[in-house]
Write the structure tokens for this entry.
Amino acid sequence: MNKVGLNIKPTAVIVDRDGVINADPHGYISTPEDWHALPGSLTAVAKLNALGIKVAVASNQSGIGRGFFDEKALQRITARMQACLAAEGGHFDFIAYCPHHPEEDCPCRKPKAGLLLQIGKALQISLNKHVWFVGDSEKDILAALAASCTPVLVKTGNGLRTLAVDRKEECPIFDDLAAVVRYIEGLE
Ligand SMILES: [Mg+2]
Ligand SMILES: [Zn+2]
């Protein structure tokens, strides 16, 4: 942990998908077969469920806007993710995707706050520092800050590169989502 003190259990944890829940193949995940959970990520989500902490996903999926895959494919990938998570006894309370091409200038593509605002509405929670957003890219950190949430960076996925090159904001850093959740389990 760095100097940013996070000493109260969060009310909700929002997670990026690629590089946090599943491996980021440095391309696009366009079929369910491309989707592979990172070690410990799904049991970490199940632990948050058991703690009564809401868990949601906020993920840019511009592969749709770019024409690499369609909404149906994303639904099938999501179904696989949910089935794998259910097998570990977990669930997501809400999943928010931005399907747009970056040039569409939509309000939801991270680093904008739109996906987090959608999640706040869906879960009927107010967004504040007690809502953590766990991501592996600078876009995630910036979206968390834009939505008044607490950004948390993990070293999986794009995380090490973000640490080395992109990160402009101070935020707590953990090895992976499992480490974030172990930390949360130790909080009041
Ligand atoms: Mg990511
Ligand atoms: Zn969008």
About this structure: The mean pLDDT is 94. Helices lie at 41-50, 71-87, 114-123, 138-146, 159-166, 177-185.
